[in-house]
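User: Could you walk me through two proteins back to back? I'd like the raw sequence and the structure tokens for each, with a short line separating them so I can tell where one ends and the next begins.

Assistant: Of course. Protein one, sequence then structure:
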Amino acid sequence: MNITIEDIVREAAPELKVVTIEADVTNAATSPELRDELLRLGENIKATYRLDEINKRPGIAATRKAYKALGKEPNRYRPSSEALCRRIVKDMGLYFINNLVDLINVVSIASGYSIGGFDADKIEGDTLSLGAGREGEPFEAIGRGILNIAHMPVYRDAIGGIGTPTSDNERTKIDLDTRRLLMCINIYGEEMLADDTIELALRLLSQYCDARNIIVKSYWASGVF
């Protein structure tokens, strides 16, 4: 899978770096060890941030800045990393879905980056384009119905939108039958070092999902490598 970044996103977020991780995986219900890892991370977040400090984390603040540059109000459509951390700090708890989804949430919470997680076998074509959502563009968000993605960064395959920093699409969502994962780590501004984020993701994928045939790629909005 390859990523192309459209000019509208390059101009709005010139510091954007996208890291993709593809892997063959074996998914399962959330393991007790991963559940504990996520809960420990949540306790650390609660001990570190007040509610009004969450959106000032560098990774989250940079994502919000990109939303505003594209014309989207981030307080109405929060990036997923921000929404997860707010749930933790407000003591609302987290959902436990399955190993793949929950390990992606660990990486997102730890790094401050919103991360797209897709069943690669459900993606149409071998290239995703990262552009801006259009008015009235259809998008069925996972667990929340139709989402207004106008002026929001959006990954599209040959059929249409599959992921935004706020939510991914039902059409390509991860489930227990997922055998090939595509993870898109959206670094609009650096918080956790990219190499450390990759290392964390690979450790979790290996530990909880028997990841193999792994491919890691990086893309820069600036075009500078």
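----
Protein two, same layout:
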Amino acid sequence: MRVIAGKAKRLKLRTVDGLETRPTTDRIKETLFNILNPRLADCDFLDLFSGSGAIGIEALSRGAGSAVFVENGKGAVDCIKYNLHNTGLDIGASILAMDVLSAIRALEVQGKVFDIIFMDPPYNKRLEKQVLEALMNSNIIYYNTLIIVEASIETGFEYLENSRFQIYKEKEYKTNKHVFIELK
């Protein structure tokens, strides 16, 4: 796995040992960032369920102003620290070593607002629903915040129909998809 473009282009990234995380493939990451590219310059990026940190690091490499990584696995947090240091992108980055819902509450207290929020929760556990419900009335988003959920192809988002969120775009791959969500 590597950084695809930007300041840290071609630098290799360490991945987390074991089967706890599923690194996003370079091809899917490139497709995602081709979509996000117009919004990245100086944006504040939140990477939830960060794993190795590859998505947030790619955002920083491509010009995001800051990135917050949220991950509660010790091995994954160590991996993110290593990858940030190795790519030289640790300035402008911070890591919250806690569960995602606690991190959202902590960020609310800090008054931090994000332009882009990416989450890649464990598949088929409905964690994305819990996180979206927490974000729905959170002060860390605003009318222009883009939320991207990486989920299994089978994951449904029907519950968004009666919420403050709407699906802006959906990009399907072989076994997973990216769902782009914004406030109505």
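DSSP finds five helices and seven strands in the chain.

Let me know if you want the two compared in more detail.
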